[in-house]
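Reopening: Integral membrane protein still failing for me.
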Amino acid sequence: MVLPLLLVAVVLCALLALWSGWFVVRDRAVVLRQLWGGAVIEAVVVVQAVVAGVLAATGSGPQDPLLFWGYVLTALLILPVAALWAFAERTRWSSVVLLVAALTVAFLELRLWQIWEA
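Support: Ran it again with your exact input. Result attached.
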């Protein structure tokens, strides 16, 4: 895995989590710009998955590929599901859902790094 790409994903997730947390405190629903932020994070995770796939195909993959790709799949699914939920739920709870999703993806990214380096 490429560390700078992972760090970009984690930082973007942290920023989205802070933004969503601010909306939770102010009792506001998610706005479309936040969902676009989630889409940017999703694009970074997709690029990261492609890079990891290329690296794994060339022989420098993780020790436990099943666990690693399970985490990748989970990281790819969390934000779209949260975005759909946040779009459908037009209350403060949509911000809570996006906050939890962003933090979850950030921690999944860190776990991916641990699995890759093991």
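The helical segments are 3-25, 32-57, 65-88, 92-117. If you still see a failure, please send the error message rather than a screenshot.
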